Each structure stands twice: as structure tokens, then as C-alpha cells.
Amino acid sequence: MAIQNNRLTAEQYEQNFSDIHPPFETQNAALVEANRCLFCYDAPCTKSCPTSIDVPKFIKQITSGNIKGSAHTIFSSNIMGAGCSRVCPVEKLCEGSCVFNLMDEPPIPIAKLQRYSTEKAMENNWQLFERKPSTGKKVAIVGAGPAGLSCAHVLSKEGVDVTIYEKESKGGGLMTYGIAAYKVTPQFCEEEVNYITAIGGIEIKYNQELGKDISLAQLKKEYDAVFLGIGVGIARQLEIPGEKLEGVVDAIQFIYDLRAKGYPTVPVGDKVAVIGMGMTAIDAATQAKRLGAKEVTIVYRRTKDEMPCTQHELDIAMLDGCEIIWLAAPKKVKSEKGKVKSLVCSKMQMGEPDASGRRSPVDTGETFTLEVDMVIKAAGQTPYEKLIKKFNIQHSAFKIKTDNCATNIKGVFAGGDAVNGGKEVVDAVQAGKDGARAILKYLKLC
Ligand code: SF4
Question: Engineering a disulfide at 438: which of 67, 399, 405, 426 sits with its beta carbon 3.0 to 4.6 angstroms away?
Fold first, then answer.
């Protein structure tokens, strides 16, 4: 067994990481699907979208050939509508609410239609929003992820000059660095950032980390308001022996390397264990398989009923040949000559419900061993504790506490994963919009 890179040919990498949800092949195919929509007056699809995209309206615009209008409808509610059409778990959002599900018929492929319109807008560089004349107000945003970009776009539209400070060398946040490459490519993410900022009035300063290259005090002094869209970024540790061995890696780092450095450069084992069952765990497991791992086993300490990923995501992992072991918790990583040799797991069972009705897994005392040469940790992420402490920002378990997006520090607002602990990209986009509205009110611009 060995961890190695460059396992496949260029063609195999290309094939394994190609678009998982390909677009409509013809205009007619899009029209056929758009014409199935019933244009429901109470549109449950819109109600279940965190950014409240007017779904029947944008689909109607497609049927009448008004693609520009359709893209405008989408981007008015969600400026990252193109990216969201590729990464949103639509089966639990808009498409999951489509009335066709009640008739046991396939739902309208809302995401694919959304991609159809927004992709055309981006390809043709249709600039659908105009920036108001400058108000002279300046806002600093920390983080060029979905929350920061969405906040920046709303503020810029209203004539506010925005400077985004981003710690990485590219914008897009988790869209760029933390999502499987077969959903969105780094190139698409870069194009999306450029498309959003093309409105003008938004400058992104890259390689600028809060607490290292810039301080909150400095931003407060130089700008009229600050928005923190810093996300969550530190991988939760397993706190088990052997965690530091060569061959134990963090899922976010693994996905980041894949996207930032290229598929052939990223080493993967023959037999890989992935700890966790969230979307990041699934993305890491499927990509390990697509990089050439012979066996990938996902280990989860609860049952299928509690899994945080969607059934659709689980299906992708299973179709890729990943094995799942439910009710198992990692106990120890064993090594040989300093390298991972096996993973010892405890067998768990679900305990009695606590006061809140939630059942937790309980160790049965029995164990089993998986022979693996690589362990990928995807047991969630923790907020930036040190940063939050350093700036005396009020928090709850290090999730920033806000009141209508305002933190306890005057003029400092926050939104997205740093506040909610980590949700979908579309939730972060809405949080950015909410943050921008709160800032506009604070600056007396609305
Ligand atoms: Fe169309 Fe389905 Fe939405 Fe109704 S619920 S408007 S049919 S997409």
C-alpha cells in the first residue's frame, strides 16, 4: 500500500473530474423543460430558496426567449446565481419543493435552467446592473467568499466604494477552494468573481489576512463600516492517537490542493478512510476515488437518519464505489515506519434521546480495524477562535453574535458561515445581502 500522486493518465483525470451536472445540450431541450413549469402563483420553489429567486418568473422569461431578463431576475436576488446553479443542494431546496414531486413526476430542473440563463449572461458579459453615483462612503469587507462578494455587490450598486481584503490569492472562498472540482472548476470561480466585480467600485486586495496583514482597528479607522465574511476555516481535530501521522490529512486541505495545485500533483492512498458524512466528506471521498484510490470507506458515527449530506450526495459517493460504515467512530490511527497502516474504530449505537429529543451515539466498547494507508478528516470545521478573541467580538461557541448583522463593535457587521457556523453557499449570499442592507441603514443611505 502506498500514497502516491500521478496515478492516472491526463485523459482519465479529465474524464473523472468533468462536469457532474452538464448543461442543456440544445436550446430546445431547455425550452421543453421550461415549458413544463406550471408557474405556480405561490411558488414553493421560490419560498424554499434562501435568496428568494423568483423561479416562475425567470423560467417564464426563458420560454419567451428573454434570456437577458431571465438572468437579471436571478442575479437580482442572487448575484452568485451561476455558481449556485452548480453547487446548491437543490434536491432539498427549490427542486425538492417543486409541485411535480407531489404528482410523482420529475421536478422542473430549476438549477439547470438557472445555469442556462446565467451562463449565457456570463459568456456574453451582459452587465445587467448599473452602479449609482458615488456616495463618498467607503466600506471594508473581510473575505471574498460568497457572503463578502454578495455584500460588496449590493453596496456597490448603491454607490458605496468597497475594498475586499482576502487572505487567499483568489476570490470565491469555499466555492473556489472547498468544493469538488467536478461541480465548479477554479476557472469558472475566477470568471464569476470577475463578473460580479465588473460592476465597478469594488477592489479586491489579495493575500491580506485579518490579524496578520491588516487589523480590525486599522479597517475601522480607514472605512465608514466593516463587514466580516471570514467564514469558518479550521478543521475540527479528531483528538485521537495517530492523528499527526504522515497520511492523515484534512479534507478541506485535500480539496484545496486538488483545486489549487492540479489533480496529478495530489497524493492519494490505495485504501482511504474518510471521517464524517457532511458535504465536504462526500466531496473528499468521491475525489479520492476519482484520483485513483482503489478503496474509499466513509466512516460515520451516527446512522443514515442523522447524516448531514443529502441523499443525492450519498448516491454520488456510492455510485463512485465508496463504501459506507455507519455507527463507527475513529479511535486510533496505527502506523508502520511512521506511516498510516490502519484505522481502529469503535462500534457505536444510538443512545436515548436527551432533553432536546436528540439522540447521540454511544460507544459499545467493541472495536474493528480498517486496513488503510490514508485517513481524510472531514469532521467539520471550527470558527476562527483566536481572531474572535483577539478583537473581542461577542460570540456563541465562537460563532459571531449579531443583531441584525451588527456585531458588538460599532460599525462592524458580520454574516455567512462565521455567524451561522457553516451553511450552504446560497445562505452566505443571502447573509451578504442582509449585511449590506444593515450597513446602508447604518450609513443612512436608505
Ligand atoms: Fe414551476 Fe415547480 Fe416552481 Fe411550480 S414549483 S413554479 S412547477 S418550478
Answer: 405
Residue with C-alpha cell 460568497? 146
Grid cell at residue 216: 480590525
Domain's final residue, options 94, 123, 152? 123
CA dist list (Å): 155 to 130, 167, 311, 406, 435? 12, 21, 37, 16, 9
Any idea what DSSP says for residue 406?
A: B
In a domain, 10, yes or no: no
Residue 238 beta carbon below 6 angstroms from any ligand 1 atom: no
Tens of pLDDT, residue by residue over 193-245, are 999 999 999 999 999 999 999 999 999 999 999 999 999 877 788 999 999 99
Q: In this structure, which residue's CA is closest to atom 3 in ligand 1?
A: 45
Nearest-CA residue for atom 2 of ligand 1: 98
Alpha carbon of 91 to ligand 1 centroid (Å): 13
400: containing domain: 138-232+383-442
CB neighbour burial string for 220-255, b if at least 16 within 10 angstroms, e if fewer: beebbbbbbbbbbbebeebebebeeeebbbbbbebb
What DSSP state is assigned to residue 102? G
CA–CA separation, 242 and 340 (whole Å):
8
Q: Which of 54, 98, 102, 114 to mutate to test the pocket of ligand 1 (most atoms within 8 A of CB)?
A: 98
Q: What angle do CA 204, 207, 209 make, to 5 degrees?
A: 100
Would 131 be classed as within a structural domain? no
Cell matching residue 159: 454607490
CA-to-CA distance for 141 and 9, rounded, in angstroms?
42
| Conformation bin of residue 31: beta by default, left when phi > 0, alpha when psi is -120 to 50 | alpha
